[in-house]
Specification:
six-stranded mixed β-sheet; about 170 residues; alpha+beta; Nuclear Transport Factor 2, Chain: A
């Protein structure tokens, strides 16, 4: 009885500290996600590059990375490779068309409470370590449903800043 009461007391005292830590993290991550979306919305691959970690696990449509149309899977890429791929995508689509596409989207930022993938990943395309506990998933959602209507950027602290370490896109 006493040990149960002591355990409840310890948990009650620890919860506010955990909530404070998460609030402080979120205060750091929210401006990063907003700036990331600003660069993405503008089709600015140079600005977008600053948000990528040294290595990014890219999952989805590998056509973005220069593979033949319809190639799907995952590949670890450098920030330079991913920025170059986005520069080509933005140039190919054009600023007006890209802006019109993104006006239809909504965004969300969610802290991962468990390791895993994504609730909409019914086909199991995301690897198990795509998201780790404590990561923040910045999601851009297009009208529709399923993974093909999402773009995911997984933000994780790398040194002194939050950077994209994993990315899902199905263009």
């Amino acid at each position: 009885m006493i040990s149960s009461l002591a355990m409840m007391l310890v948990m009650a005292l620890a919860m506010p500290a955990a909530q404070d830590t998460q609030a402080a993290e979120r205060a750091q991550v929210e401006p990063v996600a907003k700036s990331l979306m600003d660069a993405f919305r503008k089709g600015d691959a140079t600005a977008l590059k600053a948000f990528f970690g040294d290595k990014v696990l890219f999952v989805g449509d590998l056509t973005l990375l220069g593979e033949p149309r319809g190639t799907r899977g995952q590949r670890e890429v450098t920030r330079d490779e991913l920025a170059k791929a986005y520069a080509a995508l933005f140039t190919g689509i054009g600023n007006e068309k890209w802006d019109a596409l993104l006006k239809q989207t909504t965004t969300s930022l969610t802290r991962a409470a468990q390791k895993g993938g994504h609730p909409d990943d019914s086909k199991g395309e995301l690897p198990k370590g795509f998201v780790l506990v404590g990561d923040y998933v910045f999601q851009i959602t297009f009208p529709g449903s399923g993974m093909d209507d999402l773009i995911l950027f997984v933000l994780r602290p790398t040194g002194a800043k939050w950077q994209v370490v994993a990315h899902w896109a199905d263009y």
